[in-house]
């Protein structure tokens, strides 16, 4: 299978989407490196050929905030490139490589190296990975009744992450809502957690959502519809808002039913 090396800002490379290197950051650095060559036959942003001093090369690519050298070798130069990105170079087994050619085995915890807010286009992946990382038993293909309350808990954790948004009133809002959704012949019951972020001063915004869809039942239909917003300039502290949501009566039912899907998505409105 080969062994891979990763450039990441996270403690462990599997958490890179939570603390990402942006594609723009990567391209800016990679384009300035003589050892990086953009393959003509590969039309994927962020993919390069890394050429070693001996002349052979390996593929290095960006995906979801992580940069991976596929089946290559760690070099002091790669560790230096990681430094330029404010990141670290690690192997598949999480050992860390340095510019002097040495390495150290992983010892938890290492500091998180992300020093900027998340970009809006990074938010959904960071939220999804927060959901996965905070649930040791998470399996995207086998939802469980636990996922509804777990989604609320990770919504609360994600709500404290700083995300770049426009400097306007109500730039960063939280929404909890549920109710029937879909056509009459194929209705579903949806529980939705939304973070809405202003993208400009003219009313543009992006909605980052975690959505759980359930098969409709009489019990779920009996819950009706509900929605509630929270914005940072409100008198009620955010923690109190979340405490009140956690005490709502619908969780008794939601904790007994299994969602069909758990989806993380981003929707931009101009």
Automatic annotation (TrEMBL):
Top-level taxon of the source organism: Bacteria
Protein name, per record: ASCH domain-containing protein
């Amino acid at each position: 299978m080969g062994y891979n090396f990763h450039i990441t800002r996270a403690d462990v490379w599997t958490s890179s989407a939570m603390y990402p290197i942006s594609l723009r950051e990567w391209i800016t650095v990679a384009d300035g490196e003589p050892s990086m060559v953009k393959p003509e036959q590969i039309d994927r942003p962020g993919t390069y050929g890394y050429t070693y001093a001996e002349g052979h090369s390996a593929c290095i690519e960006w995906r979801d905030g992580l940069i991976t050298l596929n089946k290559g070798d760690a070099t002091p130069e790669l560790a230096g490139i990681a430094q330029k990105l404010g990141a670290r170079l690690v192997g598949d087994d999480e050992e860390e490589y340095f510019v002097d050619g040495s390495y150290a085995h992983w010892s938890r915890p290492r500091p998180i190296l992300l020093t900027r807010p998340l970009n809006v286009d990074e938010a959904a992946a960071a939220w999804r990975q927060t959901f996965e990382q905070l649930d040791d038993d998470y399996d995207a293909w086998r939802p469980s009744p636990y996922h509804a309350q777990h989604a609320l808990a990770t919504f609360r954790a994600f709500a404290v992450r700083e995300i770049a948004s426009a400097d306007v009133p109500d730039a960063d809002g939280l929404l909890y809502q549920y109710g029937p959704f879909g056509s009459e012949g194929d209705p579903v019951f949806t529980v939705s957690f939304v973070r809405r972020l202003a993208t400009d001063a003219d009313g543009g915004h992006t909605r980052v959502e975690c959505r759980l869809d359930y098969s409709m039942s009489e019990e779920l239909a009996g819950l009706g519809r509900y929605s509630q917003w929270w914005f940072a300039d409100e008198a009620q502290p955010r923690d109190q808002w979340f405490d009140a949501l956690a005490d709502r009566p619908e969780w008794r039912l939601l904790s007994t039913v299994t969602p069909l899907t758990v989806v993380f998505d981003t929707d931009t409105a101009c």
